[in-house]
Amino acid sequence: MSDLPTGVLVLIFVAAAVATWIAGVRLASATDVIDEAYGLGEALGGMILLSIVGSLPEVAITVSAAASGNLGIAAGNLIGGVAMQTLVLAIADRFVRGDRPLTALASSLVPALEGILVIAVVGTTMISGLLPESAAVGRVGAGTIAIVVIWAVGMKVLDGVRNRPDLTFADPGVPTARSETDEQPPKDATRRALVVFGAGAVVTLFAGVVLERSGNVLADNWGINGVLFGATILAAATALPEISTGIAGVRLHRYTLVFGDMFGGNAFQLTLFLFADLIAGQPVLSSEGAANAFIAGTGLVMTAVYVTGLILRPRRRYLSLGLDSWVAVLVYVLGIWGLTVVAR
Questions:
Q1: 1, part of any domain
Q2: Which CATH number is 43's domain given?
Q3: Using CB atoms within 10 A as the burial measure, which of 16, 22, 124, 176 is most buried?
Q4: Does residue 51 have a pLDDT over 70?
Q5: Maximum CA pair distance of the chain?
Q6: Closest CA to 197 of 52, 16, 15, 13
Q7: Segment 286-306 mean pLDDT
Q8: Is residue 260 part of a domain?
Q9: 20 lies in a domain?
Q10: What is the pTM of this model?
C-alpha cells in the first residue's frame, strides 16, 4: 500500500473502520442469542465472546506490525486500546434512557470484578515495560508471561463466581433485556446467530489487517510517532466494534454485557503481547516504555473510576452522562495530552 496516494489510503482506512462498525452491531445481537442458548450469562458472554471477537482487529494489527518490525505501533495499539475502549463506556452511557447512569443499571457486581482484573493486567503491563530485554524467557518477555497467567487465573475466578446470588440483584427500576425469556431460543435462531457471529468475526479480522497496513503507511506519511498513532487514531478505529456493540447492548438493555465486552476486551487484548513477542523475536513491551506506561496508566485510572461507579451505583446523570463517565472523559483527554508530550 505504500505506493498509493494518501487520499486513497484514507478512504481504505475509513472503509475498513465502517466494516468493523457494521460487524460489531451484528455481533452484539448474535451474542445476545448465544448467551441465552448456552447459558453463558451477560457478564461472561461479553467477557468471552464479544471481547475476544472484538479484539480481532488488534490480533491482525499485532501480528502484522510485529512481523514488519513496527513494535511501537504494535505496543501502542494494544496498550492505548485500553483507554480508548474504556472511553466507549461513556459513549454507551450517552445512549442510556432515563435518569440513571450506565453503572447503576448493571444487574451484577461481576463487572466490577472484571474491572479489577483489567487493573491487575494493566498494572502488570506497566511494570513489565520497565524490564530489560535480557529478562526474556526465550523470545517471550517475563512480563508477557505474567500478563497471560494473571488473565487466565482471573478468568477462572470470574467463571466460578458469575452465578453467585450475593453478587447479583434485581432492581425494579432497571428495565430487563428485551430478548430475555424463560425459554431458550429456537434451534434455528441459534444456528443463525452462530453463522452471523462467525461471519462478523471474519469481517472484523480482515478489516483489522486493512486498518494496520493502511494506518502504518499513513503514520509514516504524516510523520506520527508509532506509539502515538497506535494509541490514538488506530486505537479509535479498532474500538469501533466495541462502540457498536456497546450501543446495541444498551438498546437491548444488556447493560452487564456492555461492561463484560469492554473490560473483557481490555484484559484479553494485552495477552496478545505473547503473539507479538513470538513473531518479533523479542519482548515488544520494552519498546517506547515511557509513552506506553503513560497511556496504560490513563486506562488504569479510567477503569478504576468505572469500578467505583459499579460499586456505588450513582442515581443521577448530568447532561446525559453519569458523573463517573464525565470523570473518565476528563482523565482520557488529559491522558492523550500527556501522551503527546511524552511521545515527543
A1: no
A2: 1.20.1420.30
A3: 16
A4: no
A5: 59
A6: 52
A7: 86
A8: yes
A9: yes
A10: 0.81
d(Cα 25, Cα 248) in Å, to the nearest integer? 6
What pLDDT score was predicted for residue 179? 47
Tens digits of per-residue pLDDT, 78-115? Answer: 888 899 889 999 999 999 988 899 999 988 888 899 99
Name every residue whose Cβ is closer than 8 Å to that of residue 332 and which is 6 or more positions away in sequence.
83, 84, 86, 87, 298, 302
Residue 149 placed within a domain: yes
C-alpha cell, 64: 502484522
pLDDT at 288: 57
HEC sequence for the chain = CCCCCHHHHHHHHHHHHHHHHHHHHHHHHHHHHHHHHHCCCHHHHHHHHHHHHHCHHHHHHHHHHHHCCCHHHHHHHHHHHHHHHHHHHHHHHHCCCCCCCHHHCCCECHHHHHHHHHHHHHHHHHHHCCCCHHHEECCEEHHHHHHHHHHHHHHHHHHHHCCCHHHECCCCCCCCCCCCCCCCCCHHHHHHHHHHHHHHHHHHHHHHHHHHHHHHHHHHHHCCCHHHHHHHHHHHHHCHHHHHHHHHHHHCCCHHHHHHHHHHHHHHHHHHHHHHHHHHCCCHHHCCHHHHHHHHHHHHHHHHHHHHHHHHCCCCEECCEEHHHHHHHHHHHHHHHHHHHHHC
Distance CA 335, CA 199 (A): 35
Total structural domains within the chain: 1
CA atoms in the 13 A half-sphere facing the CB of 42: 25
What is the identity of the amino acid at 104?
A
Q: Using an 8 Å Cβ cutoff, are 254 and 177 in contact?
A: yes
Residue 194 has pLDDT above 80, yes or no: yes
Quickly count: other Cβ atoms within 10 Å of residue 311's Cβ: 11
- pLDDT on residue 103: 92
Residue 41 cell numbers, joined: 450469562
User: pLDDT (tens digit, 9 = 90+) per residue, 117-127?
Assistant: 999 999 999 88
Which residue matches cell numbers 484484559? 267
Domain enclosing residue 216, as ranges: 6-178+185-343
Are 298 and 332 contacting, i.e. CB atoms less than 8 angstroms apart?
yes
